[in-house]
Each structure stands twice: as C-alpha cells, then as structure tokens.
Design goal:
The complex is a heterodimer of chains A (264) and B (372). By secondary structure, chain A is α/β, with parallel strands linked by helices. Chain A contains eleven helices and eight strands. Chain B is of the alpha/beta class. In chain B, helix 11 links the parallel strand 6 and strand 7. In chain B, helix 1 crosses helix 7 and helix 10 runs parallel beside helix 11. The longest helix of chain B has 21 residues. Chain B is elongated. Classes of the chains: A alpha/beta (264), B alpha/beta (372). Chains A and B meet through helix 4 of A and loops of B.
C-alpha cells in the first residue's frame, strides 16, 4: 500500500466535524488527491454536502435487508470524485449503534478494494465515544491519526480534553487541533494554548462565517458552491497541512481547573 | 445471497464450534470472554476431553465498563496455574456486542505462550463460521499452514451445504425424534444376513463421533462372522489418518487400530475424519464400480451426505446421532433410521471404540436368534 493518510476527526457533538470533514475532503479532491469519506454517525449526514444534498443508502440499510453488498452499492462518488460511504445505524433508542459501526466497517473493508488506492480516508465519527463500537475504526487499525475540532468555549474544550485522554489510552496519535470558531473572545489564543499544553499544536483557525451555513443548507461544500470565498482558502490550507503533516504525538490532558482558567 | 431460511429450532453455536476447533488444534486452555454461563454444557464436555475451559465471567458491570482488565489478568492466571503451551481466547455474544477487542488484553498480558484469538459470537446462521474464524486465526499464528486452511474451507462449505440440503438446516422446523426401534432394526439386519444377502457398512463419521459409530460396523461384522457370512459384508470408513488437524488424525489412527485388533477388514478408506461432507462422491464411485449388486447398506455418522442415486435398489439402514436428522433421512428414502442418543458426550476423552446401543442390541438379538 502506498503512503495513505487515514484520519478521524473528533470533537464535541455539533461543533462542525462533518462540515469541516467534507470541506477538507473537497479541498483535497481539488488538489487531485483520491479521497474517501466514511460517515460513522447513525445520522448519516457526513457526506450529504458532497452529494448535492442527496442521501445515499447506508451499509447497515442494505445489511438489514440481507442483501449481498458490493462496493457499488455503498460507495458513491460525490464532488471532485470523493468517494462517500455512510455506515448508518438503527433509529434512535433502538438496537445498538456501536455494534452497527463494527459490523459495517468490517463489511466495508471486505467489499471495497478501492480503499487501498485512496490518498486520504476520513472517518467522520460521532462526537461522543459512548461505547466500544464508536472507536472500532481506531481499534481495528483503520485510523492512524486523529484530529480534534473545538472552539474556544469551555464545554467543547472540556470534550476535547476528554478525547485526548481517550486517545492516549488507546494509543492513537494526535496530529493537531483545529479551531472552529464560535467568535469567543481571545479564541485563537485560548485554543493555541490548550493545544500546546497537551503537547500538540493548533493547525487551523476556521472563522465563523455565514456562507458555510448557506452552502450547507443548499447541500454543498464551500469549495463547490463558493470556491472564491475567503473561507474556502482556509479549508485549502487546512487540507494541505493534513496531507503534509508528519508530526503526531500521544496527547497529554489538562486538569479541569486549568481548563477553566484558560477559558476565563 | 438471498434471504436465508429462518430456522426455528435451536441450532449449533458458532462459539461452541470455535471451542471444539481449538480442541482439535490441541490448545491446553480455552478462555471464554463473556458471561459465566455462556456455552456451559459444552465447556463441561470439553473438560472431559482434556482441555481446560475457563471464563472471564463478565457481569453487568463488565457489560457496561468492558472487560479488558479481566481478560488480561485471567490470561496471566491460567498461564501460571496450568503452564499451557497454546491458549485460545473466544468471544461471546455479550463481549462482541459491546465491542471488546481480544488483541489488546493479549498484548497487556504479554505471555510467551502463543494465544489464538477468535472474535466470534453465536449470531451466524451457519455455525461453521466459528470453525472458520478459529482456523483463520490459527493460520495467522502459524499453528496450521495456508494449505490446510484452504482445505478446511472447502470442507466447511460442503458441510454447510450438506446440512442445508438434507440435514438439520433443511427445514424451518424439524421435530426431534428417537427414530425406529433398535430391537426391530437389529432383527432385520440379522435376517438379511441369514438369508445370505450382501451388505455394505459405511461409516461416514464426523471426527470423534467415529469412536461409537465404528462399534456398529464392528457389530455387523461380528454377527456376519457368527452366521458364517463374513464374506457377505464389505466395510467402508472415513478413517484416513493422514488427513486433518492433529487430533483428528489421532482419532483415525486409534479407530483403525481397534478395528484391526477386532479382526475387521477395512475394504475401502473413503477419506479423513473431517471429510464426511465430501465422501459421498467417492462412495458413489466405489459402489458403481464394485458393489452395485449388494442388497443392503448400513450408513452411520452423517448418512445424509451419501447421495441416494448410488444406493438405488438397496435396503438402507442409517444411524445418526441427531434426533432432528430422522425426518430428513426418511424423506430421502432411507428405510430404517436409528438414533444413537447422547452419542457425543460418550466419545469425548476416549482413545478406543466405545459400545453403541445399536451395536449392543445387534449382538444380543443375533445371540437370541441363533439360539446361543
């Protein structure tokens, strides 16, 4: 296998993981990289903005119907040739979404030989690692580096700090912190300090801009719908740092008191 | 893959299949990673067969918080207590659903002894999946070679097909049955021999079950000898001792030696003791070439793997150890179907042929009929 980046983006629910993942995927595709994005959230909305707002059948949808699943049934090409896959899952409150991820990921590996040809595979994982299944992509050796997305607010940083503890426990290197701004005062500085104190670094600051929302609502990434917007350039830069990153560390974590102090 | 037939009666478990396969690979200790009661009955039976089976005994807390620590410390403990040369770790439904990894605790324990990891649960429609997962793990660890793995894969596929065609997986619901009365069928066999009819015994047994099915072949030959009809019986059995996993070859050696000691000629060796799903073709060919004029046939073990075409015109007596196999065998056209109840437990932990109920009945009935 050639040099392949296999990353997962973690962060508090609602912080913008899917939106960042799909914009990074689109930016990398623009650069000519072969990219796959695997949505591991039962909500199955990771790839929607790469597919013009279209929803694709999920792996678990098909497995549920006892269908013979092939690559062409679950891998769909979106913007710039990005290959989109959704794991899917049970309805909220029923069954076991964690087991669903395990089963779907195993199936995908089995039936999808083109995974090997990718330059970048992004696992878009649910915000909260609530059970064993949610770390399956890492545990099964599929993800080799993690990124954490956070804002400068206390709660997202608290979640990020917990994720650091988790990553260290399961021996997964962290390649950087991405700040998705919520326009908090001194935000960039706060997140930069946090990154450095856990032993990592801030690799991108994504300003809060309405255009991201607007594109998303229409079913597109910024890169596709508004390629000349300033923020598209931010995503391009982030994509480049991810593709060229060679610095990963097992993160430390902060005491809660220190976290509060940082965000004060 | 269409929608599979949903079978209502209880089916063999893939977890148990993994345990038996670990035994065939000669592991000294098998660890079940899951709740204490999982696979209890078979775990007990396997202890009779000389392997230790222990459990991490996950409870409600284990389900909620995971059992990484429990498994690694149990690995350390069994290593100290039993000094094993090879260990197997087997998943269960509970541990697999909560996403437990077997590899990490094995790394944590960091033993010098090789550990076979089998991530299996009992939710597969075919229990052969448990065998397959175990063998794949064994191949990865170098306990068996790739060639043996490929050979086993073919056999497993065939075994599954045999069950779907005419076995316990052939119908949505199969009523268990005790089959025909042994006393009557034994009488029929003695009479056939007395009348000078020619018969074939075919033992097509699954691994260790052969220790009891071989007794039936032996009994038929003893009776024929007593009647002066020794030459009227030919024997076939799947006891090639050069095929299969180490333990399976050992069974074939033991049974061959026992039969020889009893003065029984094995005319045709039809395969290894794990080849019961594929011996049908060989049996058909042999009958066509040499024995098509025989009058009756006594098939033991997995009788439903022998194709009916080759048995045309013969009176068919079959002996199974599966109460759910009676109906499918009757539907295939077997005239007499006998069940050796609880055969399997009696064939665990033995190195010699053990007496079967049908064999014993046959010997007694013959004695009575011959007035001795």
């Amino acid at each position: 296998m050639k040099d392949q980046k296999r990353i997962a983006i973690y962060g508090k629910g609602g912080i913008g993981k899917s939106s960042t993942a799909s914009n990074v995927a689109a930016a990398c595709a623009d650069e000519g990289y072969k990219v796959m994005i695997i949505g591991c959230d039962p909500k199955s909305d990771s790839s929607i903005t790469l597919l013009g707002g279209r929803r694709i059948p999920t792996i678990l949808d098909l497995l549920k119907q006892h269908l013979d699943v092939n690559e062409k049934d679950i891998v769909f090409e979106g913007y710039g040739g990005v290959k989109c896959v959704e794991v899917g899952g049970p309805e909220p409150g029923i069954g076991c979404a964690g087991r669903g991820i395990i089963v779907a990921i195993q199936k995908l590996q089995k039936v999808c030989p083109s995974m090997k040809d990718m330059d970048l595979i992004i696992y878009d994982v649910p915000g909260d690692i609530v059970c064993g299944g949610f770390v399956a992509p890492i545990r099964k050796g599929l993800v080799t580096e993690a990124y954490i997305l956070t804002s400068g607010e206390y709660m997202p940083l608290y979640a990020a700090n917990n994720i650091c503890k988790g990553l260290a426990k399961i021996d997964t290197p962290l390649s950087g912190i991405i700040c998705n701004s919520r326009s908090v005062t001194r935000e960039e500085e706060i997140v930069r300090r946090f990154s450095e104190e856990i032993g990592s670094r801030l690799i991108a600051f994504i300003p809060k801009e309405q255009i991201v929302q607007d594109c998303e609502r229409d079913g597109f990434s910024v890169l596709e719908k508004a390629p000349r917007a300033d923020i598209a350039q931010v995503y391009r830069k982030l994509a480049k740092s991810i593709m060229f990153n060679e610095q990963s560390i097992l993160p430390g974590s902060l005491e809660d008191e220190r976290l509060r102090e940082l965000t004060r | 893959m269409g929608k599979e037939l949903s079978i209502m009666h209880p089916r063999p478990s893939s977890i148990v299949a993994a345990l038996y396969t670990l035994r065939d690979l000669n592991v000294d200790v098998a660890i079940l990673h899951g709740p204490p009661g999982c696979s209890f009955k078979h775990a007990r039976l396997l202890e009779e067969d000389g392997i230790r089976v222990v459990t991490t005994a996950l409870d409600e807390n284990g389900f909620v918080f995971g059992g990484r620590q429990e498994l690694s410390s149990l690995l350390e403990k069994v290593n100290e207590m039993f000094k094993p040369k090879l260990i197997g770790v087997v998943g269960t439904c509970a541990s697999m659903i909560i996403g437990e990894e077997l590899h990490e605790p094995v790394l944590d324990a960091n033993l010098e002894v090789p550990v076979l990891e089998v991530e299996v649960h009992a939710g597969y429609p075919d229990n052969t999946k448990g065998v397959l997962l175990t063998l794949e793990s064994a191949c990865e660890l170098g306990v068996i070679d790739r060639e043996e793995l490929e050979r086993q894969k073919v056999l497993l596929r065939e075994a599954t097909l045999v069950e779907k065609r005419h076995g316990a997986a052939s119908k949505q619901y199969l009523e268990p049955s005790r089959g025909d009365v042994k006393y009557k069928v034994a009488g029929r066999v003695v009479r056939l021999l007395q009348e000078g009819r020619k018969g074939i015994t075919i033992m097509n047994a699954k691994k260790e079950t052969g220790y009891m099915f071989a007794d039936i072949s032996a009994a038929v030959n003893e009776v024929a000898l007593a009647l002066g009809r020794k030459d009227h019986v030919v024997n076939m059995a799947n006891i090639d001792d050069s095929l299969g996993l180490p333990r399976v070859r050992h069974h074939a050696k033991c049974i061959t030696a026992d039969l020889r000691e009893r003065g029984i000629t094995m005319h045709e060796v039809i395969g290894g003791m794990d080849e019961y799903p594929v011996t049908g073709a060989r049996v058909s060919e042999l009958i066509k070439q040499k024995y098509s004029d025989y009058d009756f046939v006594i098939i033991t073990g997995v009788p439903h793997a022998i194709p009916m075409e080759s048995l045309e015109g013969m009176e068919i007596i079959s002996v199974t150890n599966g109460p759910r196999q009676v109906l499918p065998l009757k539907e295939m056209g077997h005239h007499h179907v006998i069940v050796e109840i609880d055969l399997h437990p009696k064939t665990l932990g033995v190195n010699h042929i053990v007496e079967s109920e049908f064999g014993a009945t046959l010997r007694e009935v013959a004695k009575d009929m011959l007035g001795r």
